[in-house]
Design brief:
This protein has 167 residues and is of the alpha+beta class. Helices cover 21% and strands 43% of the residues. The protein folds into 2 domains: 52 residues, no CATH class; 111 residues, Crispr-associated protein, domain 2 (Alpha-Beta Plaits, 2-Layer Sandwich), CATH 3.30.70.1210. The strands form 3 sheets. Strands 2-3-1-4 form a 4-stranded antiparallel β-sheet, with helices on one face. It has a 4-stranded antiparallel β-sheet with strand order 8-9-5-10. Strands 6-7 form a two-stranded antiparallel ribbon. A hairpin with a 3-residue loop joins strand 2 and strand 3. The radius of gyration is 16 Å and the shape is globular.
């Protein structure tokens, strides 16, 4: 059974450093995680920490409120092209396309997007941060459980993107 673990985050580390620490903690695994400001939320096995909360079991037809922070764009000639910041329609279409493979359909959705600057190895990179908040309905329980376990693939996973949180 999967659990969401709360791990306090030192002020001195950035989200990429947190990704490296989480890999060390999980012996090389790359679990989905989210940077929540003062703490990290890491999805993993029950025994990862003593602060775990079980992720609900799911079945076809279940309806959940959800939040997903992702980096949305398309890959062209090996390079990620992020959607323009105010293009919520492309972002919604991006999510709805991936939702099919992830075993859910979007019922209601709010989209907020911004670009973040992240300093990495003496250079600044820009990475998309799109926050999806909404209501979903599970259409394929096994595919949705897998999406909960591994998160959404994409360029932002090392920066805390791709973890679907459900309520």
């Amino acid at each position: 059974m999967m659990h969401d673990h709360v791990i306090p985050k030192p002020e001195s580390i950035d989200v990429y450093m947190a990704h490296q620490l989480i890999e060390d903690l999980t012996e090389g695994a790359r679990p989905p995680f989210a940077d929540m400001g003062d703490h990290l939320l890491v999805r993993g096995p029950a025994d990862l920490t003593d602060r775990g909360r079980a992720v609900p079991e799911v079945k076809k037809g279940d309806v959940f409120a959800f939040e997903l922070i992702a980096s949305c764009g398309t890959k062209t000639k090996g390079k990620i092209r992020y959607f323009p910041r105010h293009d919520w329609r492309s972002r919604r279409a991006w999510l709805e396309t991936r939702a099919i493979d992830a075993g859910f359909e979007v019922r209601a959705l709010s989209v907020r997007a911004r670009s973040e600057q992240i300093a990495r190895r003496a250079r600044v990179i820009h990475i998309d941060r799109t926050q999806f908040t909404g209501i979903l309905k599970v259409t394929d329980a096994s595919a949705f459980r897998l999406a909960l376990e591994v998160g959404f693939p994409g360029p932002g996973r090392a920066f805390g993107r791709g973890m679907i949180r459900i309520q």
